[in-house]
Each structure stands twice: as structure tokens, then as C-alpha cells.
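Q: What does the predicted 3D structure of HTH domain-containing protein look like?
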Amino acid sequence: MKRSSNQSNEWWEEKTSMLHAGHSPRVKVFLRSLAPPMGTCQQQNEALEQLQSFERQGLLDSVDVTVWGKSICPDSAAAQTEPGTRILDYVDEFTAWGARTGSSTELPFEEQRVSSSILDEQYQKIVLPQVCFGVYTSDQLELVLPCEIDGESYGVEDFIRIVEQQSPVEREIGTSA
């Protein structure tokens, strides 16, 4: 069942209400690279600067940055290393979150089968997004961005805009907690 735009907006309001309730969430930021390609470099830098500013203001409890690369092959030896298992654990956690939404959820992970007839080789890989946020309150994953819920897209910019829109009273509550 597809939600109406109003229902999708209600879902978004519910997910971001933690900010208006005086909670200072933790944001885990996942990046493909610390030197992103043209076209995304400025966007990535601005997002990180804004999140760090929110953290200094007490609007966010913490901001953690992880570089997870462009893709990962789940069946590879690299995936069995500590960084590889950590990346796959986050992908699993984010996928489980998507399943819990009770809606049609699209996450920014693309599974691809790669094959080469010349090398007679094939493997599966998961393509990771350029920038991804995991937003947590306490130890609970509340939001994964970017995502699409029932046809409505929500990006990292939407989360930043919501944090920016906190009233001065809500900001004081966030810093006094």
C-alpha cells in the first residue's frame, strides 16, 4: 500500500521528532572517500561542516565519520577483515532498519553481479553511497539517509535542514541535557 504524501510527511515528522523533543542524536557519517569526485566534493564538505557545527552547539551528541569505500564484495577475503565485517554489519543494520519501517523502503545500497568472460570470473558486490547518515538516539538506529519511503525521497540535506530549523528553546533543551 502506497502512502499519501501527507502520510509520508507524518513518517518524516515522527522520525525527526527526536530533535524537537530535546534529544541530541548521534550521527554516523559514511563516506566513499575523503577526496570525493567533482560535483560531490562541495556538498560533502558543507554537510560535514554543518554537522560539526551542530555538534559544537550541542544539537548533536556526536558526529563520527567512517570511510567505507565505493563497494564491498561480501564473499571476499577483504570482507572477512575487521573493517570489512564492520562495513557489512552496518549494511545489515541499515537494511534491517528499512525492513522495520513498515513501508516500501529503498536504501542507497545497490547489489551488482560482476562478471568477466575473459577472466572467467564473477562475483557479487554491494555499491555503497557517496554519503550516508545513520542517525541514532541512545543505541537505537532511528534513521538512514538517503532513503526512499513509499516513493518519497529523503536525503542527508533534509536532515541537516531539520536540525537547522530547531527553535532557540529546542536548542537550549538540547544543550542542557
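A (community wiki): The C-alpha cells above were generated from the sequence. Residues 173-177 have pLDDT under 50 and may be disordered. The chain has one domain: 5-176.
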